[in-house]
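Appendix B: complex inputs.
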Amino acid sequence: MLSVQGLRANVGDKEILKGLDLEVGAGEVHAIMGPNGSGKSTLAHVLAGREDYEVTGGSVTFEGRDLLDLDPEERACLGLFLAFQYPVELPGVNNTYFMKAALNAKRKYHGQGELDAVSFLRLMKGKLKVLHLDDSLLKRPVNVGFSGGEKKRNEIFQMALLEPRLAILDETDSGLDIDALRVVADGVNALRSPERSMLVVTHYQRLLDYIEPDYVHVLAKGRIARSGGKELALELEEKGYGWIVDEAAA
Amino acid sequence: MPEQRSGISRKSAEAEAEYGNLVRSEYEHGFVTNIASDTLPPGLDESVIETISQRKDEPLWMLDWRLAAYRKWLKMSTPQWAAVHYPPIDYQAISYFSAPKKTELKSLDEVDPVLLETYEKLGIPIEEQKALAGVAVDAVFDSVSVATTFREKLAEAGVIFCAISEAVQQYPELVRRYLGSVVPPTDNFYAGLNSAVFTDGTFVYVPKNTRCPMELSTYFRINEAKTGQFERTLIIAEEGSYVSYLEGCTAPQRDENQLHAAVVELIAMDNAEIKYSTVQNWYPGDEEGRGGIYNFVTKRGDCRGAGSKISWTQVETGSAITWKYPSCILRGDNSVGEFYSVAVTKGRQQADTGTKMIHLGKNTSSTIVSKGISAQHGIQSYRGLVRIAGKAQGARNHTQCDSLLIGDRCAANTFPYIEVKNPTAKMEHEATTSKISDDQLFYCRSRGLSEEDAVSMIVNGFCKEVFNELPMEFAVEAQKLLSISLEGAVG
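Resulting structure:
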């Protein structure tokens, strides 16, 4: 599914990713943890194709394609999805309209016919049910005036509609109270499937109580410093990141 | 034919020499022009105006009106206060009468392929494409019969909808009473010129307590509507009546006339409502702005009666230069004025546009929503005046001016003028300037949308409040038009 090898990336003159390796197989859920500034969000954005990051080395293969060679929109159409830490507001752009345009862009890319308004609404209603969401978000402009919890739920809803092959959740738990966190996590869990892989980027072990990962990786100084099963997350909760960072430095 | 052809190229060479780069060179665009026999040579004096009046078979009072306007115009000078730049125009180098005044091409093969591409994207039928691009239309297409049907329906309701020159003949008392009563010939330089030499335009009269049974559009008079250089529109809505008028066309229109100086006058009596919507998409010129239309228009509505309402909605995407301030005089008590505007400038386009809301009556209210979008080297200014007269007790105004910048070489200015002479007035003014952020673009792209689709979506979202005011089909077309206008304007 996703193979990252020796990935190096800069922001400005500063090297953030310093030779990162990561293999994600179909249906697997990987948690990426690590202290502030370790490069977690950079990894998420580099994979999604943000142009502010300069890739200086390494390779990324996604579904057999050279991911780094593709525009962000093409990556999305191939089935990569980034749930933003800070979802962006689009004033005046209706949420339903936005999602319909996104889904149809993807369908078009795959040579499928565009969905008309009626079929799209039907599909959307179905997804809302699965995620136990109400439809109050749909009539409003994208993320405008949404609470933190609504924004994150909206991201998960978009993910449900676009049915990605690889979903990257960038600190989806940040800024959420425990109830909102549960709603979001339930949504994510409902979307787990043998065909869908997930990369869950998070600061805290807390989220992993709800979204149980198959693998946990600790990012430190731009590399994966340690990998393990979900028990690694518990160990981190207890001991903090310091010891791994020290090991990485040694 | 060959003699005529050489005749026109010599003429255009002369005009070219006089105008400098003002006039689009016919040769450059590969036009073959058939010149109609009754075209007046360039130049303007009283005999030219007499000839125009004579050709139009006008009554004497009309000629006198024109001549009076001309004499006053001679003493006027061009307004210099707008934030637009262009070389001086030689008014003696313009021909003020020609019928038919159209550059006819033999087939669509001769039309600028870029223009045709745009027509394709807008989904315009082939016969209409020809009409718009100035190709001779051999088949009489549907709109003529459509027009006839419409005319019958309007006549039943008692609504008059015809060319202004026809109205001068048929309804002289109405024209005489109202023409120039909102925009007097002395109003400004371009209005003065228009008053002296206008040759075409539209006349609408809606009788008392009548709701016009359909949206009126010049499109339905396509057989007679050769959009003139100096158009004159007069719309009168009698007590308790309603009319919605659509002007223009989303398809880019070419015209060999560079200067357009139209005058539009609206008059709403007690409890009457006039809704006037414009989509203006004149040729903006090439990338350097050469050959684009100068659109210097005076539009004004007079809410003459109590409880009357005039609403202007405009989508301005074309022209090299736009100078335009559709305004409302809120004379009647409780009258309402509205101005909703989207203006786009890209390439080397310049627009100085806005409105004037003159509150004279009690409890009058006005709303201004202006959305300006600038891309590439586009320059755009919102210029608006809200004046509350001393007697306008309880007047209210809400103004919202938003500018959206795309790229870093364009400019947006806002010039709000507010004059309040009555202490009970309530004024609200909001202005914002924003850019399409990289975050927004990346967000859309990460959902699978191309950069261009993302821009068009964000821009359409920005303009939503204005598009909501347009009649349904017009709104859809306007959205499409906006997307097309901004193609390639990013990055």
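The domain at 2-249 of chain A is CATH 3.40.50.300 (Rossmann fold).
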